[in-house]
Amino acid sequence: MKLKYLFPIFFTVLAFMTSCEDDDTISQLDGIQVSKSYVSLPVDGGESEITLTTNDSWTLAKVTTEKDQVEWLNISSTSGDAGETKLTFSAESTLDGRTAEVLVYCTDSTETQRINIIQGLAQVSEATVAEALAAPDGKTLRLTGVCTNITNTLYGNWYLSDGKDEIYIYGTLDEKGGTKNFESLGLEVGDEVTIEGPRGSYKGDPQMVNVMVVQINKSLVKVDSVENDILPAEGGEFIAYLTCKGEGVSVEIPDDAKSWLSISSIESEGTNSVVTFKAAANEGDDRETTLTFRTKEGDKEYSSQTSLIQNGYKEVSIAEFLDAEVGSTKYRLSGLISKIDDATSGKLYLKDFSGETYVYKIPDFASKNLKEGDYIVIVGTRSEYKGTPQVSGAVLESSISVTATTIADVLTKEDDSNVYYMVTGVISSIEDENSGKLYLQDGDDEIYVYYCSPFYGATGDDRNGMVAKYGLKVGDTLTVIGTKGSYGDLIELKYNFYYSHVSAE
Fold first, then answer.
1. Which of 40, 70, 97, 128 could serve as 62's disulfide partner, Cβ 3.0–4.6 Å?
2. How many CA atoms lie within 13 A of 54 on its CB side?
3. Is pTM beyond 0.70 here?
């Protein structure tokens, strides 16, 4: 136990007892005099009177802190004229002892008179967390348990569990009784802690308020370091290096992370353990989880935690990508290769129904044997070059080769919704302008084009109006991309979209 935490209480009581030996002694200042500089109030509530004598008008103020606003102390007057004034101090009953300080100032003087108020003596009660949860507000308690979660590292807000119940700690004082210095204590999740402080509540929920830390027993398991605590969207390994002085180590993955994170291996030698995790590819927004490592010694359980972040990406249209800000956010884009600038390095243009963007390099692009018109899915970030938007850091996720062929060749193929053909022909008739239903002819061969959308990726209402959008008419040469299908005896191109056209005029 850290005895220095008891020193303030000891000296407060000692000073008060000394002052009580001569209650009639007047504290002497030139301009301010009080009959008592220490005032005692009964713990059950009551009042006490002193005489204030000043050479000038005066004001009185309570000394307040973040810990105590001294709302419990009532004073008969807070200002007055020169001469003799009777001051009455009073308070309602309290469960435990409390103290306050009052300052008296004279208008035309730099002198300050301090008056110390004490009501009862603090009675610290040893308690379990269950007893603390049931205790009345204001009761001073001493609790021992394990820190299970830290929610604020400035004020020191955290949770303490004794293995059966848990209570929230709202505010933790440092070794000197100061606030906003929680990190100086070195408290970590898994440490065993003894605290002292008043029981309070917030919106009916019990909590301990502005506690002092009496003792910290460090956890027997500790995360020394980690590798890859920020994983890429494509997944990979996360490694935690531990020191464990307990009886083995167990690992806890939160339920909401079990679908994408698993334990690959646990290797232990002496007090050192290495835990390797495997994360699946992330096809959504960034995600984060907290991993808990536990060990035991007898009946006591200790724990330690570390966090893992996996980057994700946002699936957007090219128009949405172009409107995005330059930054590190990753985007998933899909479309057709509309132009290849450099096949070796993978510099190209990617196009969908909403727009077109430049892609600056795709690693290993040359080995994929991709060509203009092929369908690709990439993940990259939004950047710019001389004010022009582009995709940087692109990674090729998947691709579909599109075969350029004749109508005659497609007519011989098997129906397959996974094989795409690029077909060119003359529009021989238009059946429905809104849905883009029409016939293409190449010499004596003709094929029905069923529902042709304005371009790849269009959905909903955006799939309509292809004929009007490009001003197509009978006699124009049209190139479309689609799959071979059939409806009864009718052979058709399905899942079609516009690629290019040449007007007959």
1. 70
2. 23
3. no
